[in-house]
Amino acid sequence: MIELITISKAGETWYLNKVVVNSQHIAMVVESRDHNRLLSEGKIDLALDPHVQFSKVKMAVTSGFDEFVAVGSPSTIMEKMNRNTKQLLKG
Q: Tens place of pLDDT for every residue, the chain, 91 residues?
């Protein structure tokens, strides 16, 4: 399980939320160019660092929901997924 910060919009207001997902249910992580552009244009009013990046996280069909937008680049999210994956070492 990994914890991610998601961004969403209700009406004209942007919100950040925490979500905990099973990393094995993540099917794909791609850059969210639309959200990155909105941030660079100053249209996301959350006092975020201007260098923050956003990613679309696509979930597997069995997870129960399609996708969400998370704070962080695709590589940052993938690092988080790999860090939380326990591997059994054979010796």
A: 899 999 999 999 999 999 999 888 899 999 999 999 999 999 999 999 989 999 999 998 876 678 999 999 999 999 988 875 555 566 5
What is the domain range of residue 7?
2-83
Total domains in the chain come to 1
88 domain-assigned: no
Residue 41 in domain: yes
DSSP secondary structure string for all residues of 39-68: HHTT---S---TT--EEEEEEPGGGS--EE
